[in-house]
Design a protein that fits this description.
There is one protein chain. By secondary structure, this protein is an alpha/beta fold. The chain has a single domain, classed as Alpha/Beta hydrolase fold, catalytic domain (Rossmann fold, 3-Layer(aba) Sandwich), CATH 3.40.50. Helices cover 37% and strands 17% of the residues. The protein contains 11 helices and 9 strands. The protein has a 9-stranded mixed β-sheet, sandwiched between helices. Helix 10 links the parallel strand 8 and strand 9. The longest helix has 27 residues. The chain is globular, with a radius of gyration of 20 Å.
Length: 322
Amino acid sequence: MMMTIFLPLCILAASIKEDTLETESEKIREKSQRLAKLYQLEGEERLDITQRVLDSPEVLETHKEYIRSSGRRIWIFQYPSDGLLVTGYISFIPESKDPPLIMQFRGGNKQFGIPNPANNLTTYKNYTVVGSTLRGCFDEGVDEFGGKDVNDIKNLIEFFPILEQHLHISLVNQELQMIAYSRGGMEMFLALARFPGIQTKVGKLVSLSGLLDIERSIENRVDMKEMFEKEFGLTEDNWSEWIRERNPLWHVDKIRKDLPIMIIQGTADVRVSLEEGYEMMRVLGESGHQANYVEIDGGDHCLRNQPYILDLVDDWLHKCPL
């Protein structure tokens, strides 16, 4: 005798989401292992990896073509952060006239979600793009997911004069724009809040599928709660303190009011809920910040399935309609 069991739609939807997340996560883990090879410094403090990138099957042919035609160079380097050595990357076109200077904030953690040094942003137009892989990825130290790893952002900016000296490009006197993906959204807001001096160097902020409300993320995703408990020190005893230290919503009031902010989310994002962006916009509005919100119908996590998204960001960075 056959028995048919009907699951409530909410349970069925949650199950499908978990399966989708796990499948996607496995692909990210595998890709990250392959991308790690691009970051091998071979005993050097800094290394031009442009040819390595051009030879890599992990880099899109369209990106390779643009790198070749533009003369773009991609370097990796180590920089000091709290007595540790952390790996960063920079992509630029030598002698380009007035290139926008962008700091890219990575998603993921440790060696999960390693940024491709030749990605959509680092090969976009004439942008100069610099970013950190953060401690605990390739080098020394431990990724604390919004703890002391945030110092790696401040220390990277303080390393700009050394990069200028060795790469013969202008960084120190350039206005810095920040573009953050996923976990990077949290990292961006925390860096600005903890180190107010950075705010004088920054022109605009962009969050793409940013992790903007950790408490809501924990409520929506059991796997995030389990990860925070297993790998990043979240316990019942330190719950409130741990979340308060890391939740961007609690630190918005430390960021200058006239700093333009853009929040972009996709309706098909299975990692970060739209509610996180809604809540951030509410808090920004109540605190008097200038903020734009863009919601992309069908956009996935970090809007990877939206090829025009950087054109939208670029237009906003130049025109900044508020």
